[in-house]
User: Fold this.
Amino acid sequence: MLTVDNLTKRYATQTIFDGISFEVPDASFVSLTGKNGIGKTTLLNILGGSDPLSR
Assistant:
């Protein structure tokens, strides 16, 4: 299971994520969709460890 609890990410004065939490059960399929610039790639980079959290 993937568990994210209280994730926050900021760039300078712009808050991308503010305290988001979610769980993804084992053997689940997940799709990230949304408009350009909404934070999909940022979230994947944080989960992959290549982009640090703000707190």
Q: What stands out?
A: The chain has a mean pLDDT of 93.
